[in-house]
């Protein structure tokens, strides 16, 4: 059984393994891969149904904030934002998620999002992710989402600390 309590059949696992091998080999050979986004872990930046173009960019050229495609294990692919690189380990996080993913080594890195096509009614809005402005926006989002939980907890603790102290301070007359 998988996480949705649906039986996993050997042919399904074999098909998934074949897809992962195909994706990985295409990107390693220099092809661009276009995929439809499913899931909501990267919303609102990536909406379900958007088309992303993936390219194999060398790991040493990745920047904090890039959206990368990683293979977590033999059955899991993730398209998440790179928030840190530590000792050749890539740390990613979905923008809509509270915690970061388990680090993945460089061999699990498959590609980077170089273009996003948002489909709005009858129009396609392409976003080039390689422009300097995109790099600044993605870096800023990565820093924000990396520390968002910490900042929220700190603000809550500070507010409760100030409320407690306000109640215990006698008024001077």
Secondary structure elements and their pairing?
Blueprint: H1 10-28, E1 33-36, E2 51-55, E3 67-73, E4 76-86, E5 89-93, E6 104-105, E7 109-120, E8 123-128, H2 132-168
Antiparallel strand pairs: 1-2, 2-7, 3-4, 3-7, 4-5, 5-6, 7-8
What do we call the CATH topology? Answer: Umud Fragment, subunit A
Average pLDDT figure: 82
Spans of at least 5 consecutive residues whose pLDDT stays below 50 are none
Structural shape: globular
Count of helical segments? Answer: 2
SSE topology string:
HEEEEEEEEH
Could you walk me through the main structural features you see in this protein, from its secondary elements to its overall organization?
With 173 residues, the protein is an alpha+beta fold. It has 2 helices and 8 strands; from the N terminus they run αββββββββα. The chain has helices at 10-28, 132-168, and strands at 33-36, 51-55, 67-73, 76-86, 89-93, 104-105, 109-120, 123-128. A hairpin with a 2-residue loop joins β3 and β4 (76-86).
Keywords for this structure?
eight-stranded antiparallel beta sheet; 8 strands; Umud Fragment, subunit A; single chain; alpha+beta; 173 residues; globular
Short account of what is shown:
The chain has 2 helices and 8 strands. The protein is α+β, with helices and mostly antiparallel strands and 173 residues long.
